[in-house]
Amino acid sequence: MGPKKEFRTALIDALAEIGAAAVSAPMLDKLERHYRMLAQWNSKLNLTRIIKPKDAARLHYAESIFAGKFLGNARLLLDVGSGAGFPAAPLAITNPSLEVMALEPNMKKGVFLNEAKDQLALANFHVMQDRIENIDRSSFQAITSRAIENAGSVYSELITGLIRGSTLLLFCSGDLVTTLGQSAPPNVQGEAYLIPGSKDRYVATFKRRL
User: Fold this and answer.
1) 3-208 CATH choice from 3.40.50.150, 3.40.50.720, 3.50.50.60, 3.10.450.50
2) What is the pTM of this model?
3) Residue range 35-63: mean pLDDT, rounded
4) Which of 19-28, 53-62, 90-99 has the lowest mean pLDDT?
5) Could you tell me which residues are beta bridge partners of residue 80?
6) Contacts of 153 (CB under 8 A, 6+ apart)
7) Element (H, E) at 132
């Protein structure tokens, strides 16, 4: 089985195992094309250390799509520190009515994200090369972030800066979930959901009550 077919089969299996929403054949095609681009560009840009078809299908793509079930009615999403496009790209591919802004300060990664947008014809996927502290977040109904440097401090600031009506969705270890929950302001409610099949990977959601 070649890498292309191996990835597609692994992704279909992972989506079923993880309980993610069903994905259409055209969406699978775009997810597969994104993976092929990732594998091709990774040798030059070192976008990710997780590149084997089965591992990437599960950890990058299926888990990103799984997180989509916690977005509610959000129509405009900001992904902080998108890197190679996770969870931003899979969420944009599988939610055509969701406008996704991939925020990535690294210029080379930004080039990859823009190339992915163009090659996959993702009209609802947008790329911004900037840092989170320079961004006005008030218009976003959802904010996501996954596997960034200094996650603890950045996530704490995102929680503190939450506005009413928006959802913050983070990918965390159990220890980080506990730390963030203990430091969250009293008017912010947090919930953590263990990703099916994992031992210590959670999707954590935070919402401001007042």
Assistant:
1) 3.40.50.150
2) 0.94
3) 94
4) 19-28
5) 103, 145
6) none
7) none
pLDDT digits (tens, 9 = 90+) for 53-86: 999 999 999 999 999 999 999 999 999 999 999 9
CA–CA separation, 122 vs 107, rounded Å? 20
Give the C-alpha separation, 206 to 169, whole Å.
7
Please state, in angstroms and rounded to a whole number, the distance separating the CA atoms of residues 9 and 102: 27
Q: Say what percent of the chain tops pLDDT 90.
A: 85
Tokens read off for 189: 């409610």
β-pair type (202-208, 188-194): antiparallel
**Cα 52 off chain centre by:** 19
Bridge partners (DSSP) listed for residue 126: 101
Tokens 């594998």 sit on residue? 39
Integer Cα distance of 116 and 8 in angstroms: 18
